[in-house]
Design brief:
This protein is α/β, with parallel strands linked by helices. Among the domains are: 102 residues, no CATH class; 198 residues, Alpha-Beta Complex (Lambda Exonuclease, Chain A). It contains 39 helices and 22 strands. Helix 7 runs antiparallel to helix 8, helix 20 crosses helix 21 and helix 31 runs antiparallel to helix 32. The longest helix has 27 residues. About 5% of the residues have low confidence.
Amino acid sequence: MTRLSFSPGPSFLEQAATATWYFLDHCGPAAAGAHVVVPTAAQIPGVRAALDAAARAAGQPRLLPRVLTLGHWLLDLPPDLAAEPTLVRSHAARLLAVQQAIRAQDWLRQAFGAQTEGAAWGLAQTLLSISDELSARWLEDAAIRDDDDVDGDDRAALLQGALQRTYAHLSERFLGQEAQIVLAFWQMLSGPDDPLPARRRALQRLALQVAGPVIWIGPTPPEPIEATFLMQVGEQMPTLEIGYDWSGGAHDADSGPDWYGTLLALWTEARRVDAEVASAEDGSVPPSTPNPVPSFTPSLPTTLPESRPRIRVIGSARFEDEAAAAADQLVQWLNEGRRHVALVAHDRVVARRARALLARAGAPVRDETGWKLSTTRAAAALMRWFDVLARDGDTSALLDLLKSPFCLPAFENRGAAIALMERQIRRDGISGGWARLRHLFAERATAARADAAMQGTPDATTDAAADTAQQTRAAARALIAILADEASAWPRGAAQKPLTVWLERLDAMLDALAMRTALAGDDAGRQLLDALARLADLPGDETGAHATLSQQEFRAMLSALLESVAYKEPSAPDASRITILPLNGARMRRFDGVVVVGCDDAQLPSSAAELMFFSNQMRRELGLEDREARFAQQARDLAEVLLNNDDVVMTWQRFGGRGEPHHVSGWIERLSACCARAGAPIEANAAPGLHETFARPGYMPAPAAPERVPARWSAQAYNMLRRCPYQFFAGRMLGLAGLEAVNDDLEKRDIGNLLHRVLLQYHEEMHASDERDAERRLARLREISDDVFGALMADDGNAIGYYRRWCEVLPSYVAWQTAREAEGWHWRGGEMDVSVDVAMPDGVPLRLAGRIDRIDKGPDGAHAVLDYKTQPASRLRRKAGDPEEDCQLPFYGLLRADAVAGSWVALEGVKLGGKDSSPGAQREVDLPEFQATVTWLERQLRNDVGRLRQGARLPAFGDAAACTYCEARGLCRKGFWESTALPDLQS
């Protein structure tokens, strides 16, 4: 086999092509079957173009040899069922085997921090990766030997023999405990049907069938498995290996400076010395060392060559500026007429942001970096189902799942039903539980009208809206039923089930939720379905046939598999485009311009995280590629970008995401210093975007919207108007009030709703039975409280404290109720939805609506309205001193014209040792001059609404209490006004 090496740079492919034709010309008739092999498919077009150009330059246009990768070549190899009776084990099958092997090893999981199921699968993935690295690094030299005593047909025994020899060889070294554990797992987990041994056997068969010369052209040395293939081919056919010369020896002695020698002098890490040469010189470097360090240090250049690329290093203050600078440069190049430009995504986050900016500009983009399939919407929908399943209908995950376009996409009234579900879930603070969700949307006679009212439907169309709301409610009920029924079919808890059970349930779920059809219409969805379809082969695997998993383990397995699958966004062919690629993807490729993002010291060189316990030291012990070798290869890749391309822009950030200072990469700093010393500085700054605008002083906003004055008013709406007219304008008139957050924490409002239910049931029973005995009353109230609070306390332990506080109130509440009845006031109704029309001067009636907590009937037939408050009586007494502050109780008086009195009822306990501990003083606080206050409210309400209908302005004059939690603060911009003076309120 012949080996050639040329300096990397724009002339490399030309020299390689010329050498290839020269080599083939001396191969005789066999040259007709020649193959040119390259490492990746992205390098094929460049090699073909170079071969064609070299042939034309020689005046001999000719047919090109076949240019392909080894993977493409193996696709031509027909399967040999006699030699390979079993299929290669899939990644999922191997991963499952590792997980089952370590699941029972609690000491291993504890020692390496893999306590959760996700971490355990991560440990399995890391063990599998490191085993493949060991097989690729060590097994090739000892897997097959001529003096093997084992029959060659017994592949399992042959592999085990090779593993034992290699294990014994490596064990002779001084190894730490971590390395010994890795070796033990490698020997245990490796099998003859693993991908690497199978690929090696396939290459052996291919080497025997090669009918012509083979030329390898690559920017890096062949991997051990590829090198073995080339050696086997070289024993029977002419073979040529062409690569890069990173030694720099021929250029160090050259008198004139050149760009290649300059970069190698600046970045000594990029130099490569052949292992054979280094070992022959001093014998200190073993042949297995991946990247021997050069033993010489060249002098730094003092001048720059005439022929060099245009380089700019642009520093940006922050992430957004760097992404904008990269996108602007790429778009500028396209506008100048350049056809093929590239974005090297050395900082993936900045590259993603630049990708979004390019999409906004309509620039054609081809993304070669690939996303993890787990980051797509399709995978997110699948994982959301498991969140819903594991958390018993967690409403946050449930809403996310339903809003996904892949879940029940063709369901009737889907959008309206989901919107109704979200409103009610947030309004009632439901955080999960299938029983609670079913009860929330249970069929009730008044529910449809309540839904229509909740959306602010005008009364003229209430009946039609109620019919629509009833259909929407039925759709929401059906959605909940479908999801709940599907969830009930899955095994619960930590039950261990065979893998086939989980795969069958997953397959059924995809059909029950109509996800399969929706996923098939999406690019990422189709890849997801393909990945899931390959799992069907797992039960046929030796481990998969007996494997058992819990629900959490199955979810973690799916998550790990989706993390290992790459999704590449499809792109349409275009005459000119931007290619996004990793740094190593630019090898042996040329572009009209290249932008490299992420050139700060935090990103370049990039250091892979030391997974679990697989440290850099352990990799050195096992002879695997370590951090220094990876750094050296990154230096070569960056140098190649600067050698191959005539226009390169490198960007970096001065500050990280947490505000920490960054510096430009040390490699770039060396280059910049050299250029500055030679009088050709390359440093630049990102020009900030210039936006023309006009500064206008801000004043208190005071809009008018007579056409948006609601026809239906509640006590809460009118209180908001009085608290801050602008808040009312934004929230009620424009409908900009945000949805309430679904909060897992128990709030006081939730307890208030619970107490309302308790008291309604209690008074209904006491009214129906006419019970008079105080002890039996108290006992029954305790029983109802236990029943209502019991379900909540089972789900949320925070409810226990509220329950105990309520139990302290029960005796005084019953005593107060008895004393009130002795005065002639008896309960007549509770939680009553009431609405009335109030005549207006313009002839359009004003509809008032609300829910009255309680109505009592007095001895003379008059009625009183009561408002339950989860506040102490002392605070309610202060409220009574200013009845115009909170209009809810007098608003009840407007809803019930026959009400002659109104009171607040405190549902909180009292401090011991208070001035007045009588039940009446603890529980009830009367609103003084109730009827006069109701009359005032009616007059004020008619006047305010009438002015709004005439175009009165709504200024933002709310006080600090109104502004603290106001959702319209970003609209009124309080705090940025030039003056807080009340504006002219004339319409």
